[in-house]
Structure formats: structure tokens, C-alpha cells
Amino acid sequence: MKKQIILLSVLFIFAQVPLGLWAEDAGRDVVELKVMSFNIWGGGGKSIEETARVIKETSVDIAGIQESTKKGNNTAEKIAKDMGWHSHITNPSCTIISRYPIVKISENRKGCKIQIGENRFVWMFNIHLMYCPYEPYQLNGIPYCGAPLLNTAEEAIASAWKTRGKEVETTIADIKEAQKDNCPIFLTGDFNEPSCLDWTDKAAKAGICKTPVKWTATKAFMEKADLKDSYRIKYPDEVAQKGHTWTTLPAKREVLDRIDFVFFHGAKIEVNNVQIVGEKSNLTDIGFENYPSDHRAVLGTFRLKF
After folding, report:
1. Which domains can be identified in the chain, with CATH numbers?
2. Beta-bridge partners for 299
3. H/E run at residue 190
4. Alpha-carbon dihedral of residues 221, 222, 228, 232, nearest 10 degrees?
């Protein structure tokens, strides 16, 4: 009788799963992949050991690291070597580290192709866009790096594209070439610019941002490269879930914002979860006692179907 009850319980659970899901996954490999964007703050911030701990304890598979170098030494590359991982250095600030082998580098070196299994590949791109001028400060009357203050969304848009547009376009060129491989694509980065999905009319009315702004970097990646913002896929309400990554160390006058991202491209990618990683507080999903960076990290958990 006990065996019959267990069998009926199992059948009941299976019955709750939509038939389409089983049909869709039938005969197809499903792989879970964790991808992180992590600005480690000047090559390791408060502690290189704590930086490594964040990477290890979040069980990430591939990480885009920004500010990866300290005094000419690439901290991210060293962490990867210590863990027996692989790495691709884009420039002194940007490094991709991966538990899986890197098999190809993109033409402009913005990303790399990674083999995650037999005949299973993903592309990973990682960027650190220019920090100055930082238009959210300028719009809020906060002097920064000698840049002029701004009064309108139009001025902010023009400044942002002039500052970061060339780097964005170069990265998009690499991404569009990678799309010909028809495999999952990820883009991580500290954009030093908010999301066009965050500075909306709704957010401005709620007092979260100064004014609606269609920020150019995120807008270009979504419109020109068909990328999706994993955090806003998981949490579409920009007021209820702000997801701020800047900053763990706010100044007296500060503009808190979401400037670190995990974007993705591919029809066969499902966003399982997206978590903010940082200090122990109500602003993070995964908190560390001695969190080392001035940026919170973003950890995306994806389900890939091959």
C-alpha cells in the first residue's frame, strides 16, 4: 500500500508539469550555467583573498571581471590559475575567467568562445566602459572628474554616447559575428551607465531617478545586437526591484544605481535566477561579511538547451 501511495504521488507531480515542457526538452541536453559580472575594484579591492572567496562560494562557471589588474598584476588571471581555470585578458581592466576551456578569441578581443561540453559552446563578452563623465552625477548636480553639469535627458544621452559609443559599437561588431555560430552568448560588464529600462517615467515618478533617460549603451546592445538584460527579464518592475549595484560605499551625496549587467542572447536560454551579490544587507541576495568591492556583483543562473 505504501509503494502505491509513493507511485501515485510521483505520477501526480509529473502531471503538474506542462506537457509542452517535456516535449520541448525531449532528446535535448539541458545545461545549467552560472555567469557573473564582477567589478573587483582596483584588482581586488579590500582583499584579494575575499575577492577569490566571492567567486568560489557563489559556484560561478564563467565570470566577467572588471578592474582586474593591480600594480601591473592581473588578479583575475591569478585567481583563475589558482583554481585550475582558464582566462582571457581583454585589456588591463577586463578579464574573463572560466572553469571551462577557451577555444577561440573574437576579432576585437572583446570576448571568447568557451567549450562547456562535447559539441557544446557559448560565447562570453566582457566590457568596462568609460567612467568619466558619469552622467547620473552630472544630472543631479554632483561635480565629478571636471565634467560639466547636465540639465536634460537629451544632454545626458549625447554625453553618454560620445563617451562610450565607440566601445559599444566595437563590442557589438564582435557579438554579431559570434551570433553566426548560433550558440548562447553572454555579455557582462560595468557599463558606468544606468539601464534604459530603469530610468523610466515610472521610476522618475517614484523618485528613484532624476528624469527619464533612454541610456545609450544598454539601448544599443538590446536594439542592435538583440541582447536581453537578465535582471529585468527576472524582475521586470524597475520600482519594486531596483537591483542597485552602485555602490556598497556611498558618498554623502550619491546616486544609487544599477550599472553592472549580465546580458544574454539565444532562443534556447531560460533565466532561472538573477542575484545581487555584495555586503550583508537587505540590498543583496547573497551577502558576504567582508565583501571586498565598491560594486555589487550580478550572478545569473541560466538553463541552456542544446
Report:
1. 29-305 (3.60.10.10)
2. 36, 275
3. strand 185-190
4. 110
